[in-house]
Amino acid sequence: MVYFGGLLALIGVGSLVFRDGDVIGLPASVVGIALIVIGAGVSAFGVVRRRKVRARKIAQGEPVPVGDVIERARALPRLIRAARSGAYGELPKRRMTLWVLAVIYLVSPFDILPDLLPIIGVTDDAGVLVWLLTSVSTAAGLYINHERKQVGQRD
Questions:
Q1: Distance CA 96, CA 90 (A)
Q2: Is residue 59 classed exposed, middle or buried when 0-12, 13-18 and 19+ CB atoms within 10 A define those classes?
C-alpha cells in the first residue's frame, strides 16, 4: 500500500509537471493534485496498517522480522548455511528450492508471458521478483530475530 500510494503521488507530480492538456475532461493540475492527495492517503493508510499488523503479531506472540535491509542482506548467507546444516529448522527446504527456481526463472530467457508484449510481458517477472524479495527479506528478518533470542538465552 505504501509503495502504491507513492506511485500514485509520483504520477500526480508527473501530470502536474509534464501534462499541458486536459485529462479525461479535467485540467491536468486538478488531476495531478488529486492523485498526489490520494497517493498520500493510501501511503498513510499503508503505514498505519503495517504498524497494526506488527502490534497484533507481537501481542499474539508470533515471531516478527527484525532488522533493516542491510542487516537482513548480511544475515542471508548465515540463514542459508544454518538452514542447510539443520541448525535452523524454521525455514523449510521447500522454500529455499522455490527461491532457486524463482532466480532461475528471472534469469532464463523463457517466460510465461513474453517480454515482447509491452507492460504485460514484464508483469510476470515483476511478480516473481517481488515475491522473491519479500520472502527472502522476511525469512532473513525472522532469522535475525532467532539469532537475537539465542544470544539472549546464552547470557
A1: 12
A2: exposed
